[in-house]
């Protein structure tokens, strides 16, 4: 039962990184399709139908974490309090920019919120990466980390940011109108090798230091990311959907070392029976249901934007 | 200031702002569902216009609500570590269920609804908004179940005396049922007074959409007495439960001398304000419903002015209601088991203060911007491009980007 809950939490977090990774990446690349209003609106429209459904995976991860491992979550949140608070604020600002940017027609309003969106998305990627790096290097339950900027966390911040850029760009190649995909294509071609190199450095560093978060599982996951990123460069122009699936894989990889780091403590902090049983009964219904609805959403809306595509955000 | 005070201030600020938007969401979605259902059943396009106009206000409002919801949700884990550590087994379960329904199901479906106008079939689209509404109310049930657990920690006790509540115990909590219905109908008041008030504004200004706003005004005013009477009914029923499970809260509400572990006395004032204004709304709503006869409500003009002026009133009442319920639980976080002083995460006051100032500040800016946008769209009246303006016709934005795909 313990293993089931633990794998479920890892899967929720991994899916979050894959899905919201497209939004965070596209937010950083708001001007990659072109700097005019049409290109920027098309970029926001690209992730529009999925935006709400994507970010909820992180909320669900946190809430399920709280219900399943209440004693571990408390310790983890206390140790990384300042960083988690920063992620929360950046997340609010990113969301506000998405919701507000198209509500008024004034060009100044839109340019202003677009700057906020790009800035907040970049900060979001970096902060999530820093958080991953700190969780991997600092055991939960340690005193609050005041200066979360060691070289390993910084390397994670860089990796996550570049991987999200590549992932967002691959997604935009799938969704943007054909005349706007030149920029995102260049981003994938130039940055995917850099992202692969960044993962390779993390992999090598993990092997050298031999930290517990760098067991066989993490090495395998990071090696997979390297291969997936290299492969995505070759096929992005011809098969952009498959390239997106590969970059999604690379985006989800941080969930593995985080899971491996938390696993020993998790075994000791599982919630008591009755509440978990209630939650399990509910999850058995809700998770397949939501997965089905989200899969249907992706099936219904994941096609190239054309003149008839509705816009809202 | 100590950590507990700052953490309480942060929770009060963010949860109150969040709930203003939630209450309007819960109330407004009922009208959007009714309008779109009428459209699909009758095929009358004027109902589609109604659903789109009120639907856009609903969606913009939902956006601010959901951002606030994220903040409130993460705050439990950040600031209330001892609560989640000690009582996460029961409380966390209810909270997780709320998140799964509110965020997961509702947000996913709402995204498809927003982008589905003109893309999906009419019936599919209608099913989406019904499911959005149902999951909104289901999530309200779960969040109140979590809250009811704090008010009255039910469940069998483990070796350390901590309650372990399962599904049935959480939902069977005496502090839940009446409170849930009270909140549901209070939200219906918020929604109907908003719809009635905005409609009245357009009718007063003669903005050229008289038939459109007459219809929404009549719908809202017809629903309003149901909301006011039911809210008062289930509010009164809660007093019986409170007498039983939280005698000190009742003592303060009725201004009889409280004993130890009593909540602050000022909630008695909030309670009186809620009670008296609530009764006033019952009378007002019945009178307005009578004036629907032969459209006197519109022809007399004065009722329209009253409705416009009254838009903010129910928002004030729901905040007063939460203050009575939540501050009334003090000094406990989990009633009788964990005080608020104990529930807070042991953390340096400066870190918590910085977090409070930044989150509350950002949220305030978002809330004000959200309100201004809602007011602006409400004033503009029905427009063709509320949803589903294709990108090719997206409004030109100044000197750049006027090209059409």
Describe this structure in words.
The complex is a heterodimer of chains A (313) and B (405). Chain A is mainly alpha-helical. Chain A is built from eleven helices and one strand, in the order αααααααααααβ. In chain A, α4 (81-100) runs antiparallel to α5 (107-137). The longest helix of chain A is centred in the first third of the chain and has 32 residues, at 37-68. In chain B, 75% of the residues lie in helices and 3% in strands. Chain B has 14 helices and five strands. Residues 395-405 of chain B have low confidence and may be disordered. At the A-B interface, α2, α3, α4, α11 and β1 of A face α2, α3, α5, α14 and β5 of B.
How would you summarize this macromolecular structure in one to three sentences?
The complex is a heterodimer of chains A (313) and B (405). By secondary structure, chain A is mainly alpha-helical.
Question: What labels would you give this structure?
Answer:
heterodimer, A: 313 residues, mainly alpha, 79% helix, B: 405 residues, 14 helices, 5 strands, globular
Characterize the quaternary organization of these chains: heterodimer
Radius of gyration of chain A: 19 Å
Mean pLDDT of chain B: 88
Describe the sheet with the most strands of chain A.
Answer: none
Shape of chain A: globular
Q: How many strand units of chain B?
A: 5
Main structural class of chain A = mainly alpha
Strand content of chain A: under 5%
Which band does the percent of strand residues of chain B land in? under 5%
Instruction: Specify Rg of chain B, calculated over alpha carbons.
Output: 22 Å
Biggest beta sheet summary of chain B: 2 strands, antiparallel
State the share of residues found in helices of chain A, binned by percent: over 70%
Number of helices of chain A: 11
**What is the general shape of chain B?**
globular
Tell how many strands the DSSP assignment of chain A holds.
1
Side by side, the strands of the main sheet of chain B go 1-2
Helicity of chain B, as a percent range: over 70%
The low-pLDDT segments of chain B are: 395-405
Tell me the span between the first and last alpha carbons of chain A: 42 Å
Q: H/E element string of chain B?
A: HHHHEEHHHHHHHHEEHHE
**Helix/strand structural class of chain B:** mainly alpha
């Amino acid at each position: 039962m313990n293993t089931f809950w633990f794998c479920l939490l890892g899967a929720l977090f991994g899916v979050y990184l894959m899905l919201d990774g497209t939004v965070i990446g596209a937010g950083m690349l708001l001007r990659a399709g072109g700097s005019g209003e049409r290109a920027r609106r098309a970029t926001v429209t690209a992730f529009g139908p999925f935006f709400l459904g994507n970010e909820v995976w992180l909320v669900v991860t946190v809430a399920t974490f709280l219900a399943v491992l209440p004693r571990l979550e408390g310790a983890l949140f206390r140790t990384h309090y300042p960083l988690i608070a920063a992620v929360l604020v950046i997340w609010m600002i990113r969301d506000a920019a998405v919701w507000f940017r198209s509500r008024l027609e004034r060009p100044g309003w839109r340019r202003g919120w677009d700057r906020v969106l790009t800035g907040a998305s970049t900060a979001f990627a970096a902060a999530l990466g820093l958080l991953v790096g700190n969780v991997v290097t600092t055991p939960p339950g340690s005193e609050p980390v005041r200066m979360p900027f060691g070289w390993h966390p910084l390397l994670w911040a860089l990796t996550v940011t570049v991987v999200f850029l590549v992932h967002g760009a691959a997604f935009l190649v799938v969704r943007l109108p054909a005349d706007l995909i030149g920029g995102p294509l260049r981003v994938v071609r130039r940055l995917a090798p850099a992202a692969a190199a960044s993962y390779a450095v993390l992999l090598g560093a993990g092997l050298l230091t031999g930290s517990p978060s760098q067991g066989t599982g993490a090495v395998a996951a990071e090696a997979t990311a390297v291969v997936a990123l290299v492969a995505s460069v070759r096929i992005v122009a011809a098969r952009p959907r498959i390239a997106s699936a590969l970059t999604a894989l690379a985006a989800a990889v941080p969930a593995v070392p985080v899971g491996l780091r938390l696993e020993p403590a998790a075994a000791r902090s599982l919630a008591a029976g009755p509440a978990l049983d209630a939650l399990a009964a509910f999850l058995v219904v809700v998770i397949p249901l939501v997965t089905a609805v989200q899969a249907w959403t992706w099936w219904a809306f994941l096609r190239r934007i054309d003149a008839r595509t509705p816009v809202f955000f | 200031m100590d950590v507990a005070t700052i953490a309480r201030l942060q929770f009060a600020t963010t949860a109150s702002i969040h709930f203003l938007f939630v209450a309007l969401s819960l109330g407004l979605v009922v009208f959007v569902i009714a309008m779109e259902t009428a459209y699909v059943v009758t095929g009358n396009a004027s109902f589609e216009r109604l659903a789109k106009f009120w639907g856009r206000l609903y969606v913009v409002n939902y956006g601010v609500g959901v951002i606030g919801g994220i903040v409130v949700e993460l705050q439990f884990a950040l600031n209330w570590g001892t609560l989640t550590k000690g009582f996460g087994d029961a409380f966390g379960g209810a909270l997780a269920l709320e998140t799964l329904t509110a965020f997961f199901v509702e947000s996913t479906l709402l995204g498809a609804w927003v982008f589905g106008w003109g893309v999906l079939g009419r019936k599919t689209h209608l099913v989406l908004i019904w499911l959005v509404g149902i999951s909104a109310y289901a999530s309200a049930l779960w969040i109140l179940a979590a809250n009811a657990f704090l008010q009255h920690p039910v469940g069998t006790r483990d070796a350390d005396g901590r309650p372990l509540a399962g599904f049935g115990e959480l939902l069977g909590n005496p502090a839940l049922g009446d409170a849930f219905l009270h909140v549901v109908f209070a939200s219906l008041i918020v929604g109907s007074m908003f719809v009635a008030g905005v409609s009245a504004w357009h009718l007063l200004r003669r903005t050229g959409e008289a038939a459109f706003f007459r219809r929404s005004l009549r719908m809202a005013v017809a629903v309003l007495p149901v909301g006011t009477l039911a809210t008062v009914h289930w509010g009164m029923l809660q007093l019986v439960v409170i007498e039983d499970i939280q005698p000190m809260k009742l003592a303060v509400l009725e201004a009889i001398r409280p004993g130890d572990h009593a909540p602050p006395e000022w909630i008695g004032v909030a309670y009186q304000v809620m009670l008296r204004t609530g009764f006033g709304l019952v009378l007002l709503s019945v009178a307005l419903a009578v004036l629907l006869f032969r459209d006197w409500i519109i022809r007399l003009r004065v009722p329209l002015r009253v409705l416009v002026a009254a838009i903010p009133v129910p928002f004030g009442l729901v905040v007063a209601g939460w203050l009575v319920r939540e501050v009334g639980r003090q000094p406990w976080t989990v009633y009788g088991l964990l005080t608020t002083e104990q529930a807070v995460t042991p953390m340096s006051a400066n870190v918590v203060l910085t977090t409070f100032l930044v989150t509350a500040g950002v949220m305030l800016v978002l809330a004000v911007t959200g309100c201004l946008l809602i007011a602006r769209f409400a004033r503009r009246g029905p427009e063709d491009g509320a949803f589903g303006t294709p990108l090719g016709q997206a409004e030109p934005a100044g000197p750049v980007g006027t090209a059409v795909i």
